[in-house]
TrEMBL record:
<keyword id="KW-0805">Transcription regulation</keyword>
<dbReference type="Pfam" id="PF02909">
    <property type="entry name" value="TetR_C_1"/>
</dbReference>
<dbReference type="InterPro" id="IPR009057">
    <property type="entry name" value="Homeodomain-like_sf"/>
</dbReference>
<protein>
    <submittedName>
        <fullName>TetR/AcrR family transcriptional regulator C-terminal domain-containing protein</fullName>
    </submittedName>
</protein>
<keyword id="KW-0238">DNA-binding</keyword>
<keyword id="KW-0804">Transcription</keyword>
<dbReference type="InterPro" id="IPR001647">
    <property type="entry name" value="HTH_TetR"/>
</dbReference>
<dbReference type="InterPro" id="IPR036271">
    <property type="entry name" value="Tet_transcr_reg_TetR-rel_C_sf"/>
</dbReference>
<dbReference type="InterPro" id="IPR050109">
    <property type="entry name" value="HTH-type_TetR-like_transc_reg"/>
</dbReference>
<feature type="domain" description="HTH tetR-type">
    <location>
        <begin position="8"/>
        <end position="66"/>
    </location>
</feature>
<feature type="DNA-binding region" description="H-T-H motif">
    <location>
        <begin position="29"/>
        <end position="48"/>
    </location>
</feature>
<dbReference type="InterPro" id="IPR004111">
    <property type="entry name" value="Repressor_TetR_C"/>
</dbReference>
Length: 201
């Protein structure tokens, strides 16, 4: 029998299938991926290093949406803001992947390379070596929390007659609550980051 012109299985298809399963059910298993692709479970293991290997493929697939070239912008705070907005958009497109990816160590080479780039940019901007990772981790917390917030109902609170101040505040903010909150948080983050370098906000 002639071989199919298109391979039945490759790392890209495994990653895409795993991400689809995560989008549908918040998780995946290697046997589920195999069934979805119409292959034996062992065939999947020929392409990945176990379940952890699939997680890293999913991580690369999601993080490939982040515009890494934003880290080349100048000055540094413009670069960090653009990167944060792109990072948020990438994960907002796959919010159910956030718990999966944020609770396992990062090993994916392309993702590590992007963080290497971010660290280098901040060091070149004058941040201290011991201050870089807390800064990036805080930014990541803001970005990922906001990406999840985008999936929440616009009306997250249901005021009662006993909470008139809350009701009025919710009316005042109008639509776009999650975006407004992210803009505020990012502006505050950048103001604080500038203060670490003794810059004027």
């Amino acid at each position: 029998m002639a071989r199919p012109r298109t391979p039945l299985l490759d790392r890209e298809r495994i990653a895409a299938t795993a991400l689809q399963l995560v989008a549908e059910q918040g998780e995946f298993s290697v046997p589920q991926i195999a069934r979805a692709l119409g292959v034996q479970t062992g065939s999947v293991y020929h392409h990945v290093d176990g379940r952890a290997g699939v997680v890293e493929l999913v991580r690369e697939l999601v993080c490939d949406r982040i515009a890494g070239e934003t880290l080349d912008l100048e000055p540094w705070d413009r670069a960090l803001e653009a990167w944060a907005r792109s990072y948020r958009a990438a994960f907002a497109a796959s919010p159910r992947a956030i718990p999966l990816l944020m609770t396992t160590p990062v090993r994916a080479p392309r993702v590590l390379a992007q963080y290497e780039r971010a660290v280098g940019m901040l060091l070149a901007a004058g941040f201290t070596r011991d201050g870089v990772m807390p800064l990036l981790t805080a930014l990541e917390n803001l970005v990922l929390g906001s990406a999840l917030d985008l999936t929440a109902p616009e009306a997250m609170w249901e005021p009662s007659p006993d909470t008139p101040l809350l009701a009025d505040a919710l009316t005042a903010v109008g639509p776009g609550r999650a975006d407004a909150a992210f803009d505020l948080g990012l502006a505050a983050f950048l103001t604080y980051a500038r203060s670490l370098r003794g810059e004027a906000a």
